[in-house]
Amino acid sequence: MSDEKIKLLVLSGPTGSGKSELAVRVAERIGGEIVNADSMQVYRGMDIGTAKPPAEALARVPHHLLSIVAPDQNFTASDFRREAAAAIADIDGRGKKAIVVGGTGLYIRALLEGLVDSPTADPELRLQFAELTGEELLRRLFLVDPETASRLHANDRVRLIRALEVFNQTGRPISAFRSEHAFSGSYYRTLKMAIRVERPELYRRIDSRVEQMLQDGLVAEVGSLLARGYGTELKAMRSIGYKEISAHLAGETTLDEAVSLIKRDTRRYAKRQMTWFCKESEINWLEYPESFATILAHVIQFFG
């Protein structure tokens, strides 16, 4: 049965580690096409701040799932799974090799192992919970789902509210849904690789990339999105880079302050990504560009 599964190369790692460049180099050597697994790069008009691959890279190798929805459209892990699965089937059907590239761990997990079949959002319930403090949310969750509560912090309001929402809708803790699913069913034969970068070097790369985004026109990009009516309340516009520049354009911060916040928040995000991927199983951690020959040999052997 396993032989019928599509072979898939998955390249992950923290932001700024060089995933996109590595993916293009590998794809050129093996006849591959790239499927984006970055939750922000799916949005149209958000190119600079999301560090989408440059035009030169897009011309070298076909890319999928870039710029497919407007910034005011809701796009979930479930949506990603559906779109990515279709793209991978198309790539495989044409005799090419699919390479999934990105740092959104939940998207990658959803694609490879499916999603927990829990209830959809309840806006009315969420409004009620939104009025409570994080400490109160956590206290309530401990009463009904201590397993989930023990893994969450009072500041993690999104997950706390979601867990309480599921319990209120079903009378069952969200941990029970997760236990039943257990992320156990794999839909592909995968080779998982991630780029390891020492923290000081990673932070240096992040700071340098933020400076490059400014030079490339990040302020103008954000201004254009705001002018087109994409407000700061949108999920996409609250992402790193866009929220800070929006605040600057509203006169709330100086540009230097905004840039400093973008660098800080990106470093924090990279740290969270590392924590996520270090917990994932079967990931081969490799240095890049130093180990490119080793990476390529692994990939060729896997697809061979």
Strand content: 5-15%
Q: Which oligomeric state applies?
A: single chain
Tally of helical runs = 14
User: What would the principal axes of the Cα set say about the shape?
Assistant: globular
Largest sheet: 6 strands, parallel
* CATH architecture classification of the largest domain: 3-Layer(aba) Sandwich
What is the number of domains? Answer: 2
According to CATH, the homologous superfamily of the largest domain is P-loop containing nucleotide triphosphate hydrolases
Range of helix content: 40-55%
> Structural class, from helix and strand content?
alpha/beta
Q: Largest beta sheet: what is the strand line-up?
A: 3-2-4-1-5-6
Total beta strand runs = 6
Average pLDDT, rounded to a whole number, is: 93
Radius of gyration: 20 Å
- What's the CATH topology name of the largest domain? Rossmann fold
CATH class of the largest domain equals: Alpha Beta
List the uncertain runs.
none
What is the terminal separation in angstroms?
18 Å
Description:
With about 300 residues, the protein is of the alpha/beta class. The chain folds into two domains: about 230 residues, P-loop containing nucleotide triphosphate hydrolases (Rossmann fold, 3-Layer(aba) Sandwich); about 60 residues, Histone, subunit A (Orthogonal Bundle). The chain is about 55% helix and about 10% strand. It contains 14 helices and six strands. A six-stranded parallel beta sheet has the order 3-2-4-1-5-6, sandwiched between helices. Helix 2 links the parallel strand 2 and strand 3. Helix 1 crosses helix 14 and helix 12 packs antiparallel against helix 13. The protein is globular and about 55 Å long. The model has no long low-confidence stretch (mean pLDDT about 95).
